[in-house]
Specification:
Elements: E1 2-8, E2 14-20, E3 24-25, E4 29-32, E5 42-48, E6 51-57, E7 63-69, E8 73-74, E9 78-81
Antiparallel strand pairs: 1-2, 2-3, 2-4, 5-6, 6-7, 7-8, 7-9
């Protein structure tokens, strides 16, 4: 009864939107500020029905994440691998 979509905007923000069976699609919103992500470098997962994670690569090759819980909503993005951890696209 729930679906999530995530994407990187042209200015490097991470955006999301969600759909519920009873309400349909909601309005998109940011979970990371401009300049946060490199183009096309995003992955997501849901470990439980009340938890979601998003992961992305920054322009300087860091890996960052943010998470959502039903009780608290979205948190602040944080780094899980330092600059240069991800190879640059050629």
């Amino acid at each position: 009864d729930h679906a999530d979509a995530y994407w990187i905007t042209p200015d490097g923000r991470i955006e999301t939107n969600f759909w519920t069976h009873t309400e349909g699609w909601h309005q998109p919103f940011s979970i990371a500020p401009p300049g946060s992500a490199a183009p096309g470098a995003i992955a997501t997962l849901s470990r439980a029905v009340d938890h979601a994670d998003a992961y992305w690569t920054t322009p300087d090759g860091r890996i960052e994440t943010n998470f959502w819980t039903h009780a608290e909503g979205w948190h602040q993005p944080f780094t899980i691998a330092p600059p240069g951890s991800v190879a640059k696209r050629s």
